[in-house]
TrEMBL record:
One of its GO terms (biological process) is alanyl-tRNA aminoacylation. Its cofactor is Zn(2+). Residues 249-283 form a coiled coil. One of its GO terms (cellular component) is cytoplasm. It comes from Herpetosiphon aurantiacus (strain ATCC 23779 / DSM 785 / 114-95). Keywords: Aminoacyl-tRNA synthetase, Coiled coil, Ligase, Metal-binding, Zinc. PANTHER family: ALANYL-TRNA EDITING PROTEIN, ALANYL-TRNA EDITING PROTEIN AARSD1. Pfam families: DHHA1 (PF02272), tRNA_SAD (PF07973). SMART domains: tRNA_SAD. GO terms for molecular function: alanine-tRNA ligase activity; aminoacyl-tRNA deacylase activity; ATP binding; metal ion binding; nucleic acid binding. This is Threonyl/alanyl tRNA synthetase SAD.
Length: 387
């Protein structure tokens, strides 16, 4: 027993009657169904059977189509209704993929080796190492021109004789009866999915981005209603950005670039000012440092970023002092820097006493201990080692 697939004959059929021929918990198989089962990169249709939501559709190895329901139903005679908005969206995206893949194939001989239709966008993987923006634009334009020609789309099972006369874009991956979807003479593809009756129903194709993935290039795009929504929010966002800069939309990019340049200048000035402040701070710390023998030792626990404390320690060393710094953070750290002693040897002894680890050179060393509460004691031990 198999399910008669009504969408093969009429992709626009939205309502029909059927009989349940098999049950499996909340799954039912119908004698005839227009619900498309997931496959070939196209998601399953949704809809309702006797008013109960159909949440998934799958075909088994015996060509029986199973419909997963949100709740059980008792009757064997059922009325079915398709979620037409979802179906038409899938038809737009799927046939848009056919046209875009054919455009890349005809223009650059780039075969499509992967296809995925998600709830937000469509991707195809092209057998090429790279694709620049001009090539993407050329293929996008060609595919849209075919859409605007509103070529008839013919989906049918063909005989072996007719199949031999068609220039298929890709050899069929199945045996037996072959279903071919043709967009005029522009593209002929073996496909079991749902498609509109003419290319104009795709609306338009909009490539959003591309990325290199191994030995192929992945193209992300949207078609029809999704393309309209995508361009609509982008236009709204661009309008808000332009209004924020008090410029027209075409000048928004230049305004952002000017802002970026200003931000880089301000960042550079801030870094220079921060460096000067740290230098002043380091000199003040050395002037007030504790003398241990001939060394001016600055021992202190900081609640600052480790990178800033590390920079301050180096400046203390440059100013002629010895920095014994602790950083009270989620991972407590010790940072030692200075001349006239072996910072690495002293730090290794200190962290070992507090269950930590670390190391470094004679002039600079860094390590960590388990508890922030032990930082002050660790610095005292370091001063004792120096003495």
């Amino acid at each position: 027993m198999s399910t008669e697939r009504l969408y093969w004959h009429d992709a626009y059929l939205r309502e029909w009657s059927a009989q349940i021929v098999a049950r499996d918990q909340q799954r039912v198989a119908l004698d005839r169904s227009a619900f498309y089962p997931e496959g070939g990169g196209q998601p399953a249709d949704h809809g309702w059977i006797n008013g109960v939501a159909v949440v998934d559709v799958q075909a088994d190895d015996h060509d029986l189509v199973w419909h997963t329901l949100a709740a059980p139903i008792d009757s064997d005679s059922v009325e079915c209704r398709l979620d037409w908005q979802r179906r038409f969206d899938h038809m737009q995206q799927h046939h848009g993929q056919h046209l875009l893949s054919a455009a890349f194939d005809q223009l650059f001989n780039w075969r499509t080796v992967g296809f995925h239709l998600s709830s937000e966008y469509v991707t195809i993987d092209l057998a090429t190492g790279e694709a620049d923006s001009e090539q993407l634009g050329e293929a996008e334009t060609l595919a849209n021109q075919v859409i605007w020609q509103n070529l008839p789309i013919l989906a049918r099972f063909v005989s072996a004789e007719e199949l031999a006369t068609l220039a298929l874009r890709k050899a069929p991956s199945v045996t037996g009866a072959i279903r071919v979807v043709s967009a005029g003479d522009f593209d002929h593809s073996a496909c079991g999915g749902t498609h509109p009756n003419a290319t104009g129903a795709v609306g338009q194709i909009h490539i959003r981005r591309s990325e290199k993935r191994g030995e192929s290039v992945r193209i992300e795009f949207v078609c029809g209603g999704r393309a309209l929504q995508d361009l609509r929010w982008k236009n709204a966002a661009l309008g808000r950005i332009a209004a924020g800069f008090s410029v027209a939309q075409p000048q928004a990019e230049q305004a952002i670039e000017r802002l970026r340049e200003q931000e880089q200048q301000v960042r550079k000035q801030f870094q220079q000012a921060e460096q000067q402040l740290l230098e002043f701070e380091a000199k003040a710390l050395v002037e007030q440092a504790q003398r241990i023998g001939q060394l001016k030792v600055v021992a202190q626990v900081w609640l600052r970023e480790p990178q800033t404390v590390r920079q301050l320690a180096n400046l203390v060393a440059q100013a002629g002092g010895v920095a014994l710094f602790g950083v009270a953070a989620s991972k407590p750290q010790l940072i030692f820097a200075g001349q006239g002693l072996d910072c690495g040897a002293i730090l290794r002894q200190v962290v070992a006493a507090f269950g930590g680890k670390g190391g470094g050179s004679v002039q600079q060393a860094q390590g960590g201990i388990a508890e922030a509460n032990d930082l002050a004691a660790a610095l005292e031990l370091a001063k004792q080692q120096i003495a």
